[in-house]
């Protein structure tokens, strides 16, 4: 019996691909058999390049952060040095201003004591009081420390204490209601001069014959303005008193400062005197 060989079947080839994983399911390669050719693709090369790229980016970020930190530290050191220089400069200016005002006050006092004419002596004494007032305002501003934005509650309370140290024995001076508002120092200086002028004026005229009394200072922020009140319970204003009438140097000085600040002054008589001044609210930088 003849054996018949099985018919040879044409060979068939299939493309096959399989992933090569580690025991922790991390894919490390691909085994690819296509067209009778076997290829083994290593996946480690791609993550390796990505890892190197990531590490390089991290190095750049760390380097940039280090440079930024060094720049910040350098700028901070420069700022501290400038602040230290500024402090030394301001103390030097303060020292020179004090010396200058002291010299002027001493000269005025000497002239007032030795001048023969009573009217001249009174004028020199008034000039001396104004120099001392400016010195007091300067001193209180410098004590506050921040010469750009002045806390008026701190400033007026301190100024009131300085004015009280020169008051007559029969007069008390104090702050009544001062809001913790901040204004630029150049405005605070002018308001301080107005307050000083009004208080000294009350010392001289409101309490004749050793009459006992009180002077109060208040500053509050209204909706559209700042209201400054310097009030006393003294003898009151003369019947012929008007704000616009050219009276003494003190009132002319007050009106001059008010025109610079855009302020408006009114008076209320009766039981003593109330000087009420309204300033534009635009003077404010902050309200506590």
Short description:
This protein is α+β, with helices and mostly antiparallel strands and 288 residues long. 50% of the residues lie in helices and 23% in strands.
Write the layout of secondary structure elements.
Elements: E1 16-21, E2 27-34, E3 37-42, H1 45-114, H2 118-144, E4 149-151, H3 152-164, E5 171-178, E6 181-184, H4 185-205, E7 213-221, E8 225-232, H5 249-261, E9 264-268, E10 273-280, E11 286-287
Parallel strand pairs: 5-7
Antiparallel strand pairs: 1-2, 2-3, 4-6, 6-11, 7-8, 8-10, 9-10
Helix pairs in contact: 1-2, 2-3, 2-4, 3-4, 4-5
Architecture overview:
- This protein is α+β, with helices and mostly antiparallel strands.
- The chain contains five helices and eleven strands.
- It has helices spanning 45-114, 118-144, 152-164, 185-205, 249-261, and strands at 16-21, 27-34, 37-42, 149-151, 171-178, 181-184, 213-221, 225-232, 264-268, 273-280, 286-287.
- The strands form three sheets. Strands 5-7-8-10-9 form a five-stranded mixed sheet, with helices on one face. The protein has a three-stranded antiparallel sheet with strand order 1-2-3, with no helix packed on it.
- A hairpin with a 3-residue loop joins strand 7 and strand 8.
- The longest helix has 70 residues, at 45-114.
- The mean pLDDT is 78.
**Radius of gyration, CA atoms, in whole angstroms:** 42 Å
Shape: elongated
Topology order in helix (H) and strand (E) letters:
EEEHHEHEEHEEHEEE
In whole angstroms, the N-to-C terminal distance is: 121 Å
Total helices: the number is: 5
Number of separate structural domains: 2
């Amino acid at each position: 019996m003849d054996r018949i060989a099985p018919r040879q079947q044409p060979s068939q080839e299939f493309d096959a691909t399989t992933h090569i994983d580690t025991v922790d399911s991390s894919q490390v390669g691909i085994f690819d058999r296509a067209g009778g050719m076997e290829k083994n693709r290593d996946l480690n090369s791609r993550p390796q390049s990505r890892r190197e790229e990531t590490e390089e980016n991290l190095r750049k970020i760390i380097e940039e952060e280090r440079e930024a930190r060094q720049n910040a530290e350098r700028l901070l050191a420069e700022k501290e040095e400038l602040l230290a220089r500024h402090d030394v400069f301001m103390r030097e200016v303060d020292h020179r201003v004090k010396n200058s005002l002291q010299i002027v006050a001493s000269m005025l006092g000497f002239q007032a004591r030795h001048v023969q004419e009573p009217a001249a002596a009174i004028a020199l004494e008034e000039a001396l009081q104004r120099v001392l007032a400016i010195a007091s305002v300067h001193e209180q501003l410098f004590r506050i420390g921040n010469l750009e934005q002045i806390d008026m509650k701190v400033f007026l309370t301190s100024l009131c204490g300085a004015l009280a140290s020169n008051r007559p024995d029969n007069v008390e001076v104090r702050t009544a209601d001062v809001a913790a508002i901040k204004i630029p120092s150049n405005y605070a200086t002018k308001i301080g001069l107005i307050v000083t002028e009004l208080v000294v004026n009350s010392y001289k005229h409101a309490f004749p014959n050793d009459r006992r009394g009180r002077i109060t200072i208040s500053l509050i922020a209204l909706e559209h303005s700042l209201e400054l009140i310097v009030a006393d319970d003294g003898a009151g204003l003369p019947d012929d008193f008007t704000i616009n009438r050219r009276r003494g140097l003190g009132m002319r000085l007050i009106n001059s400062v008010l025109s610079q600040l855009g302020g408006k002054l009114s008076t209320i008589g009766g039981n003593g005197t109330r000087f009420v001044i309204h300033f534009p609210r635009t003077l404010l930088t902050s309200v506590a």
